[in-house]
């Protein structure tokens, strides 16, 4: 219990605590720098990784996040908070890796009612003051090799470890704003939504293919790939989206506080310096998919596509989405190209960029005939 109380009060951010706690080491014996030169010097490897992710998470967006607005009575526990924390904690799996404060979900689950009350008090204070422990803003990043050249950082997957207490907090926020964000989503988006499934979209595409074949209509489908979508979306665009969609200001304020000064530490044989995170939603954070899909919905709202796409039951269907996986549909190759161009233009306004090399277009035999003319 003492360990939990220390983490709740101090966020576990003091260096002395971090030195005593095992965070984990990952070996990387050689790495290629920007100039293509390979180094085996361990300190230099850490520096190359730090510079790579510093560039990745930098932003050209000049919009500053809003100044914190505070509320009164920070010691009052919001009605129902204890029960909300209990429900959120019950939904957390055991055995998951902890953040730098080393507090695990197992530890929280085993402490019972007393920790629920302390968490509820902490979360209420965070919401009403608009402040969170500084260590909540830092992510520990472990690099896992995917495939290909193991000396190229692009072939590594960054795995983020966030404070479990922090993730519990945003899980509570997510449950509160879910209804508002769901209301603003269109039927084309099936990602991370109750009652929706990627299977539904696959079935729809299969039906479209069959109907176009049956009625001798050309069909073009573009499968859009964004470059590092979740890591690229601009935070200011996300926050403006939340305001546009009617999310209560108290939750926007606390999210702006979380992302203001957000950092990451790369762990190899030693820790890198803290890297400022200027864009992207946080990995392994319950609320992140909701933030991303809400922002993407704003992109599609800005497109004048009411008369574009294919007609299904008297209505136009221009796209199907599962989070950042997008399929654009049309009966015309020229129209599809226009849609890709317009989507890329609007997407760039929120920090997203279509990867044209990985974006693929599929068409049926009638579409192929049209394309060959």
From TrEMBL:
The keyword Iron-sulfur does not apply. GO terms for molecular function: endonuclease activity; RNA-directed DNA polymerase activity. PROSITE patterns: RT_POL. The keyword Nucleotide-binding does not apply. Keywords: Endonuclease, Hydrolase, Nuclease, Nucleotidyltransferase, RNA-directed DNA polymerase, Transferase. Residues 125-373 form the Reverse transcriptase domain. This is Putative endonuclease-reverse transcriptase. It comes from Rhipicephalus microplus.
């Amino acid at each position: 219990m003492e360990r939990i109380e220390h983490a709740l009060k101090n966020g576990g951010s003091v260096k002395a605590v971090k030195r005593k706690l095992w965070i984990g080491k990952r070996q990387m014996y050689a790495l290629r720098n920007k100039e293509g030169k390979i180094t085996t010097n361990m300190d230099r490897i850490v520096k190359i990784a730090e510079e790579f992710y510093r560039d990745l998470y930098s932003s050209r967006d000049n919009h500053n996040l809003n100044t914190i607005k505070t509320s009164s009575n920070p010691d009052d526990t919001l009605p129902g908070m204890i029960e909300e924390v209990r429900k959120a904690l019950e939904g957390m799996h055991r055995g998951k890796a902890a953040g730098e404060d080393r507090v695990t979900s197992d530890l929280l689950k085993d402490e019972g009612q007393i920790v629920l009350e302390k968490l509820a008090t902490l979360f209420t204070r965070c919401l009403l003051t608009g402040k969170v422990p500084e260590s909540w803003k830092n992510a520990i990043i472990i690099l896992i090799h995917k495939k290909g050249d193991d000396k190229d950082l692009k072939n590594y997957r960054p795995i983020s470890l966030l404070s479990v207490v922090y993730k519990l907090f945003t899980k509570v926020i997510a449950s509160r704003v879910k209804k508002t964000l769901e209301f603003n989503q269109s039927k084309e988006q099936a990602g991370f939504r109750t009652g929706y499934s990627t299977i539904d979209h696959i079935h729809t595409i299969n039906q479209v293919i069959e109907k176009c074949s049956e009625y001798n209509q050309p069909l073009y489908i573009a499968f859009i790939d964004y470059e590092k979508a979740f890591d690229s979306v601009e935070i200011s665009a996300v926050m403006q989206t939340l305001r546009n969609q009617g999310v209560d200001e108290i939750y926007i304020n606390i999210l702006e506080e979380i992302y203001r000064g957000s950092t990451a530490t790369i762990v190899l044989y030693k820790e890198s310096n803290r890297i400022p995170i200027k864009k992207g939603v946080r990995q392994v954070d319950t609320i992140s998919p909701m933030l991303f899909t809400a922002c993407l919905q704003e992109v599609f709202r800005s497109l004048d596509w009411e008369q574009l796409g294919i007609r299904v039951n008297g209505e136009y269907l221009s796209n199907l989405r599962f989070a950042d996986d997008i399929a654009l549909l049309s009966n015309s190759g020229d129209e599809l190209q226009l849609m890709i161009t317009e989507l890329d233009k609007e997407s760039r306004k929120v920090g997203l960029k279509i990867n044209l090399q990985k974006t693929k277009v599929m068409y049926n035999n009638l579409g192929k005939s049209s394309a060959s003319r």
